[in-house]
Structure formats: C-alpha cells, structure tokens
Amino acid sequence: MPLPRLRTAGTALLVTGAALLTRRALRRRIDASPLWPLPALEQPVSGQPRSRALKLRVARHEHVADGVVQLRLEGGHLAALPGWEPGAHLDLVLPSGLVRQYSLCGDPEDTSSYTVATRLIGPDEGGRGGSLEVHEALREGMEVEVRGPRNRFPLVDDATSYVFIAGGIGITPILAMVRAVDAAGADWRLLYCGRSRASMPFLEELEKPGGRVTFVAEDVDGRPDVRAFLGEGQGAAAGTAVYVCGPEGLMDAVASALPEGCTPHLERFAPAASAGGESPFEVELRRSGRTVAVGADTTVLAAVRAEVPNVAYSCEQGFCGTCQHHVLEGEIDHRDELLTDGERGDSMLICVSRARGTRLVLDL
Ligand code: FES
C-alpha cells in the first residue's frame, strides 16, 4: 500500500536523526493512527486534477467603484499561470487564513496575471470578513496564496444568442463572458443593475458596445424590470443561453420571469434558502472506520471535522465544490446548486447537504 507522505516524512527523520525515531517506531506510530490506513483517492470526486496552490504577488490594489476593489495578482517567477475560461473563479487564501472565492474578470489570454474584484460586505450585510480583509489588509507587494482556477459557471458555446443579467459585483464573471461572446461575434444582451452608478464597476468598458447593455442604477431608475428585459427583441427564446449572477432577489425575479422550458445558468452570492426543519442522522466514514452523529443544528462538514480535522473545505456555503465527497450508501438531500445531476447521483457537498434518511456512508 503506498504511503507517499508518511514515507517521505519518515525518511527525512531517519536521515537527520534529529527525532531519534527508528523506522520500527515510525511504523508503530503509523499503525496506531486511528485514521490509518486511509487510502488516498487517485482522482478527486470532481474529476478535476487537484490544483496546487500558487503564491502570487498583489501587483495592483485599486478602487474601481464605490466599495469595490480590484486586484491584479502576478505570478512573477512563474513562466505562465494556469489557464482559465469565462465563469472561472480563484480561491484566495487571505493572510488571516480565510479562503474566499472570487470570479476572474481579466483577460484569459494574459497568462502573467489574474484579475479579480470584490465588493466590501460589512458585518451588517452578513459579511464574514473576507471582503473586509481584501479591502483593508491586502496591500500591493504582499504575497497571497491562490488555488484554482476552477469553473463552476462555464459558458456554453452552442447557444443561438446570449442573455446576461448581473447584479452588483455579479458583473465580474459576466464581464469575462460578455467579452468572449462579443469577440466571437455572437448575439448578446446584458442587463446590469447596481445600487448607484458610482457603485457599478466596469461601466466605461460596458458602455462601448452601445445598445447591447441596459444599465439600471436603482437610486435613480428603481428596481430592474427583469420581465420586460427578457421579453425584448427575440426574448429568451429556445436556444438562448441565460446567465445570471447576483443577489437572491435578482435570481428570484429572473426565475419568475423566464419563459417555460428556459433554464438559466445561475451563480449566487449566497446559498439558496434551506427548506428548514432539519433532522439528525449519522454518517459512516467508511475509509476512516468512524461514524459521526450530525445533529439538527450542525452540518455534515462540522461533524466530520471533529473526527477528521484536515478534511478539505473552503466556502462552507455550497459554492466552491472543495468539500465534495463520494456517497457510498444512503439518500442525499442536496442543498447546493453547484453539482450537476450526474454528480448528484453519488456525491454531495458536505458543507450544506444532508441525508434524507437516518444514515449516509461516505468514502472518506
Ligand atoms: Fe465550498 Fe462546501 S466548502 S462547497
């Protein structure tokens, strides 16, 4: 059975002799570990290669609208940064250790840097400290760790036309998409809403393709009329790809205004509301040989972390996919809007999803 990590560590200890640990003692320690043996997955559940963290330098930290900071992160020593496509995001590991996801909004052809933008969300708006840290603690010249890029909001390339709807900082993934479809000569329209023009980044660029973009600054124009926008021109007809990124109210407005049979591509700022009324259940961690209880007021992730502290997670909101695990037995109550139907068959995001019955078995 391969023991890559432990063998490496053991070899280092034996060679230096610093820990006075013999090979036999090391073997005893490994065998005594309650989590051993725990074979590593050859391939992550998502099928995507595990991306290694990169150390990038904050080359630019600038205010591009009221309450919006844009970061340009450069690889410097790296020949070329991993590529990405519109809709992709980065995991940013902030100096405090918080990990947050930000959509890439720069040029995918630029392999020397990544660009992201974040709106400041204070605690009174439900902010959890990530955007505050980006705004107030990150400075030019600092080094940050990033993981990714990963794309959970991909742009389809076979639509007859594209309708984009962005609310606030939801413009970041949409901007990269708009550039791509415009460069490809596709038919597209965008509804871009914000609290005020001053709070809406990228206005100058988006005003150039005159006629394709409808701007709604709510302090002057009031709430956007999503139904009227969707009905304009050819409307959201069959073959039209509809992409929406923004707050929950905008998502709801789009969902209620879309014609029958039209399924939008959504990226939310927050997870969809829970159905409520949680029931406790238990989760067997098959490879670890443990069973944990998941209470009515806790998550699978929290229960698993109590037994397996290094289990991977990031957003804790069903956004990023980091906590996706294979489910070997049991019926899953999916609470995310990230996984595809195919993935939902035998995997779940343990930060938000639960069991429909009394028991799940995870390949963990
Ligand atoms: Fe991000 Fe679960 S931690 S989806």
UniProtKB/TrEMBL annotation:
Highest taxon in the source lineage: Bacteria
Keyword Nucleotide-binding: no
Alphabetical list of Gene3D superfamilies matching this protein: 3.10.20.30, Nucleotide-binding domain of ferredoxin-NADP reductase (FNR) module, Translation factors
Domain 2Fe-2S ferredoxin-type positions: 281-364
Cofactor(s) for this UniProt protein: FAD
Keywords: 2Fe-2S, Flavoprotein, Iron, Iron-sulfur, Metal-binding, Oxidoreductase
Keyword Lipoprotein: no
Alphabetized SUPFAM superfamilies for the sequence: 2Fe-2S ferredoxin-like (SSF54292), Ferredoxin reductase-like, C-terminal NADP-linked domain (SSF52343), Riboflavin synthase domain-like (SSF63380)
Pfam families in the cross-refs: Fer2, NAD_binding_1
UniProt-listed InterPro entries: 2Fe-2S_ferredoxin-like_sf (IPR036010), 2Fe-2S_ferredoxin-type (IPR001041), 2Fe2S_fd_BS (IPR006058), Beta-grasp_dom_sf (IPR012675), FAD-bd_FR_type (IPR017927), FNR_nucleotide-bd (IPR039261), MRET (IPR050415), OxRdtase_FAD/NAD-bd (IPR001433)
FAD-binding FR-type domain boundaries: 51-156
Stated name of the protein: Iron-sulfur protein
Protein source organism: Streptomyces lasiicapitis
